[in-house]
Write a structure and sequence with these properties.
Belongs to the AdoMet synthase family. By secondary structure, the protein is an alpha+beta fold. Helices cover 32% and strands 22% of the residues. Strands 1-8-9-10 form a 4-stranded mixed sheet. It has a 4-stranded mixed sheet with strand order 6-3-2-11. Strands 7-12-13 form a 3-stranded antiparallel sheet.
């Protein structure tokens, strides 16, 4: 039987965290390629991107496999597209470098150890493997296959307005609030740096979140004279603003910059890599994770698109009143279109039989890679804004971003299980 009273902790990291800098660059590249494809008249469904970024002191390395429009390819003096020894077209690095610099600048890095203008950027992107392409691309009667094998999980819980677990939801909200204050350049938060981490321990009573017992925040600051106590005076009002009223009590324990000074931050203080914050990106440890990262991948990669679909289905199940909590697992094989399995766990909160719901989910949404991309309209430049503060629990945008957060399947789901 599930415990009803307990403590649970989740962490988040800001957009200036070294790993998040890399996620941002990788996703800005995804967006740029989709924009270029549209301008060039290339079918966006043909775009392929698997872009990994590494960042360290004044150095960024971008690597991976891509299929991009000709406007992003290198040409010789006669204007012909250049190819490598394997016959794959060569990528022109200039636009990719520009995208990376703009991303670093937007985050706010203008420090001696990591500056958007002076850091060295190496672009090591090359053409997608033909062996992978033959399994993923459609041909004849073969539908678009999954870009990789794997398992993906979606989760939703009736704990916050966005049906996300409370610990990760509020860990994100603390950092979003502080980042907005820092970027406004007004007030005491202007002395904070881009790199930060938050962590909240939430107390549950009768299965519902009711308060926080521990708050952890480590944030970079540009004034090296500031003490931990000084930093707490700056950040505490923003943290209180981010959390629900009454959640902070006299017994709440604060850990603000517990190691003391935090001036050297970002990739200058610690190397960053794309895809190294998968629990921060999803449910903060409150739900299973299939292991696949999101950023830098086009939506043929089911690591990304099927995880979005699973969240979409779980959120609609809870929004439809069919359960208070829902975990959904999907599984795929590379080159195979249909999911191998659909699994539902309603955690003893369901109003409908789980086996019946599994069949209903397959009826209300086409869960092939093509079906997911079409239903959620994913072949768009909507990914950079997902790279920090979570891929879930966000408001769906007019530009098509966070379409997987909509609850427009409620009516169809209710009808399918009736």
């Amino acid at each position: 039987m599930a415990r009803s009273s307990y403590l649970f902790t989740s962490e988040s990291v800001s957009e200036g965290h070294p790993d998040k800098v890399c996620d941002r660059i990788s996703d800005e590249i995804v967006d740029m390629v989709f924009k270029e494809a549209k301008k060039a008249g290339m079918d966006p469904a043909k775009v392929r991107i698997a872009c990994e970024t590494l960042a360290t002191t004044n150095r960024v390395v971008i690597a991976g496999e891509v299929r991009v429009p000709e406007s992003l390819l290198k040409r010789d003096k006669q204007g012909n597209v250049m190819h490598d020894a394997a016959g794959a077209p060569l990528v022109n690095p200039s636009k990719f470098k520009s995208v990376a610099r703009r991303a670093i600048r937007a985050i706010g890095y203008e420090q001696s150890g990591f500056h958007w203008k002076t850091c060295r950027i190496d672009v090591l992107l090359h053409g997608q493997s033909a062996d992978i392409a033959q399994g993923v691309d459609e041909s004849g009667n073969k539908d678009v296959g999954a870009g990789d094998q794997g398992i993906m999980f979606g989760y939703a819980a009736r704990e916050t307005p966005e049906l996300l677990p409370a610990p990760i939801y509020y860990a994100h909200k603390i950092l979003e609030t502080l980042t907005a204050a820092r970027k406004s350049g007004e007030g005491p938060a202007a002395v904070l740096g881009p790199d930060a981490k938050s962590q909240v321990t939430v107390r549950y009573e009768n299965g519902k979140p009711v308060g926080v017992t521990q708050i952890v925040l480590s944030t970079q600051h540009m004034d090296d004279k500031l003490t931990s106590s000084d930093v707490r005076k700056i950040v505490e009002p923003y943290i209180r603003q981010a959390l629900p009223e009454g959640w902070i009590s006299e017994d709440t324990v604060w850990h603000i910059n517990p190691t003391g000074k935090f001036v050297v931050g970002g990739p200058d203080g610690d190397a960053g890599l794309t895809g190294r914050k998968i629990i921060v990106d999803t449910y903060g440890g409150a739900a299973p994770h299939g292991g696949g990262a999101f950023s830098g991948k086009d939506p043929t990669k089911v690591d990304r698109s099927a995880a979005y679909a699973a969240r979409y289905l779980a959120k609609n199940v809870v929004a439809a009143g069919l359960a208070d909590r829902a975990t959904i697992q999907l599984s795929y094989a590379i080159g195979v279109a249909k999911p191998l399995s659909i699994y539902v766990d309603l955690h003893d909160t369901g109003k409908v039989e789980e086996g019946k719901l599994e069949k209903a989910l397959a009826e209300v949404m086409d869960l092939t890679p093509r079906g997911i991309r079409t239903h959620l309209d994913l072949n768009k430049p909507i990914y950079a804004k997902t790279s920090a503060y979570g891929h879930f629990g966000r408001k769906a945008g007019r530009d098509g971003s966070f379409s997987w957060e909509k609850t427009d399947l409620v009516k169809a789901l209710k009808a399918a299980v009736a």
